Amino acid sequence: MFRVRLGDELEIEEEKIYATWLENHCFTFSRDQKYDENFIFVLPPPNANGELHLGHSFGYTIMDCIGRFQRQLGKNVLLLPGKDHAGIQTQVIFEKLLRDQGIDTTTLTREELYKRCYEFCIDRANYMRSQEKSLGLGADWNFELFTLDPRVSEIVLDTFIKLYEQGYAYRAERIVNWSIVSNTSISDIEVEHVEKPGTLFFIVYPWSDDIELEHEGDNYFDLEPDDVLNDAFLVKKLMNPPKRALIKGRKCVLHPVVKKLKSEEFLVYLPEVDLHKGITVATTRPETMLGDTAVAVNPDDVRYKNLIGREVTVPCINRKVSIIASPLVDPTYGTGALKVTPAHDFKDFEIAKQKNLQIVQVIGKDGLITQNGGKYCGLTIQQARQAVINDLKEEGLLVDTKEIVHFIPVSERAKDVIEPLVTDQWWIKVESLKEEALRRVKNKNELEVFPEEFRSLIIQWFERLEDWNVSRQLWWGHRIPAWYQNGDVISVSREVPDNASQDPDTFDTWFSSGQWAYSTLVAHNLLDLTACENWSHNYPTHLMVMGRDILFFWACRMILLGLYRTNRIPFKKLYFHGLILDEKGQKMSKSRGNGIEPKEVQSKYGTDVLRLSLLNGFTPGRDIRFGFSKCEPWSRFLNKLYNCAKFIKLNSGPETATNIIHPLCAELIRSTRTKCEEYKKGFEIFELSSVLDNIYTFFWDTFCDWYIEISKVLLKTPFALEQKTALKSAFEAILFMFHPFAPFVTEYLHTNFLGEKMLLAKKRFSDLTCYKLEVANSDYDMLSLFEIVRLLRRFKQFSTDQVDFFVEKSFNYEDDIVASLSRCNKCQSSDCNVEILVRTKKVFIKIRDIPVLKKELQKRLDAVEAQLERIEKLLKSDFSSKAPYEVVLKEKQKYEQLKIEKHELENQFASISGK
RNA sequence: GGGUGUUUAGCUCAGUUGGUUAGAGCGCCAGCCUUACAAGCUGGAGGUCGUAGGUUCGAAUCCUGCAACACCCACCA
Hints:
Blueprint: E1 3-6, E2 10-13, H1 14-23, E3 38-42, H2 54-72, E4 76-80, E5 82-83, H3 87-100, H4 110-134, E6 145-146, H5 150-165, E7 169-179, E8 184-186, E9 191-206, E10 221-223, E11 227-229, E12 232-236, E13 244-247, E14 250-261, E15 264-271, E16 278-283, E17 294-297, E18 311-314, E19 319-325, E20 337-340, H6 346-355, H7 381-395, E21 398-411, E22 418-428, H8 431-441, E23 448-450, H9 454-464, E24 468-469, E25 471-472, E26 482-485, E27 488-492, E28 501-502, E29 506-507, H10 509-513, H11 516-523, E30 543-547, H12 551-566, E31 573-577, E32 580-581, H13 598-605, H14 607-615, E33 624-625, H15 628-650, E34 659-660, H16 663-684, H17 688-714, H18 720-738, H19 743-752, E35 774-775, H20 782-798, E36 803-807, H21 814-822, E37 825-826, E38 834-838, E39 841-847, H22 850-876, H23 879-882, H24 885-912
Parallel strand pairs: 3-4, 5-6, 10-13, 17-19, 23-31, 30-31, 32-33, 34-35, 36-37
Antiparallel strand pairs: 1-2, 7-8, 7-22, 9-16, 9-21, 11-12, 12-15, 13-14, 14-15, 17-20, 18-19, 22-24, 25-29, 26-27, 26-28, 36-39, 38-39
The structure holds one RNA strand.
């Protein structure tokens, strides 16, 4: 926990303040209230295997800020905290930890590993909870849950059992993304594509039988390409395009399919291929040829059309395979001939399914070549690749290589290269589930998304969603409740059948976190799943907040599973925040070394500065840049707040006025109330950043720079008591409004400087003094006071001599206030040499420095004339007839006012001329 | 290849449904130790709102093209 230093002498201990909040049950949720009185939101559970980073701090700050505001409204708020077991990620981290400690993981039983890892996670969770508390997170800790908590797992398993019973969960052998390092399958969404250099090998698969090739003459027309598409040339559409062309020195043939690019049509010319020895394929992974069961070409590809059905021999393994046609083959890429390895490539698997090809697995789950790989059996992928290349070279079948840059799939968690493999897995059939999800997500009444643009991302994701592989070959996670006898599933149930063995696999982490929105509520008896079928009442939660990076991982899955089990989207409002970038706009990461730890900021500036600088200037869904330079202004702000509190304390006593009569004091109360209302409105639509901006300006510019300065005069008059009351109640409201943003310092000042007995964290709108005071009506024009002071300040600034003034019709002490703020002296009107109309008031000024006066008057006159000219032009145009009446009227009124001002100024010029 | 977002002052960003003089913080210039605060106060300079068109009486704001940057998705071997 952190101490924050304010000014020279004040230190605030955040930990003590947090303890006080807990002691006073500031964050305690009471169960017995109605939906409308509650505000419940389930917090995203961070992975319990490390510590919180700045991104977590950002999210929590937003959530806590909203939670505190909802309490101010009088709501019964529950922020429900938790931690995620994070399957594969934790297993990777934990196994490495054991290895680093010299422990051989293979010597431990599964139960032992699980137990130790559970303890590890609980330990991390404890640490992370202390971090969450240090941020000021006002969660009800009695409700905290872990995703592997028995109360939660029970629900997760039940969901799977239900899915199985209703035919949504099934087992199938299919090609999946396989991580050799983690020894498990992973879902598409956990695969990243990383750009890396690689080599494209051109390999000849010789004809199995003798073949006679047709020869079609040598007429080639010279053509200039307009563009290049992979290995083919694009030429703008011609009237009678030649069948054969020489482009950039290469013999090409015309492809019968026209390519459309940006609404323009192009002819495609494919480079001719050498077919004498055999058919040439291109691949970056030569070792997979051991599992080739076909060579595929595009059915429209004229180069190969006549060869479909012929046989070639796959070198190294000497397997005879046919040339088949598939529209999935891109004729412009490589040679246009694709080696088909169904067991180790997604597209090839698809082709094999359509064409009923044999599937030969040559790479095992351990990453070694299988027995199907013949003499290469037992080699690693890299070794096999080298061996195959050497053998091909020897036989003269490797005809070309090309260095390319391509995207290779890697595991998001372990970062190792993904090998597509055919394995037996559990799947969730998503077809009908996603239809329902799409229908509901498109309905804006059912789900509000902040920012709204993100709704289309959710829709697109669902549209593309295919069956979900939910089994993982890991020991860390919810073990799948499927039971086998002789390799067959005999039951899926929480009951243990006799003589059966349990599926060794666990669920994909997202299968459990996808249920978090309701599993947490059910675990705490806030929701009854059995009542969900035909219910009409509201879903218990109101809001879900998360980073935009887990939109697909988490938000979509919660919608999918939430609809399945509760018949509702488990949140009414879904709010996404952006990610934290460094000052240069780059992602923070350990490898770049540009990350900032939350505690670095907290110990240097205090938690409130961290919160304020994160919340300042952000827009939902948009990433923000963060660096220490963002903290400085907020550090100054807290110092200002502290000094302001000091001033208020110095100028308040036990007595208070109940009736505010002086127009300036009344005006202060009124504008404070207005700010409170704006604050409320802004928060209700989650405009946290603009709310902060608004109250910042109110505090600094309006309250400190004007009202406190004004008070320095009024405090010496008989209006002192009501001035003190007004200042104190306005400052109370200011602390109240800043409290969700900067809870620690505001709480401290509230108790120690305002001397309030009630905790600020417990204060509601209805407790604010500014709403209770009786305030006299007045039509006082605050702006004219501001204008007069600013005018005099400018004269004073530029003038070499002193400036005196007299304000017409000034009310109680107004002239003293003007004198104090402008540092000019008041005098009698008769002593003055110039009079200026400021809004509704006339100010008489005595100024000896005539050139300065003239210059200033001229500046005003120029501005007025420019305005007049502008409006005249405007009124002469179609504006008067076509613009709405109110808008025209506003301009006309402005025009009249300006004309009077101009007249006055001209008179002044006349009176000083010659002086 | 598909999609989304961004482009406003020297820097970091606001700018709500189009309304006519575009805002803040930091930085810059000038002047102030005015007894809450020099981490402050006062005054000031600085922007043809990426570009080319269009709609409109009126565009930073709406539409279209273009450019640059960023991110996400995708099974080009």
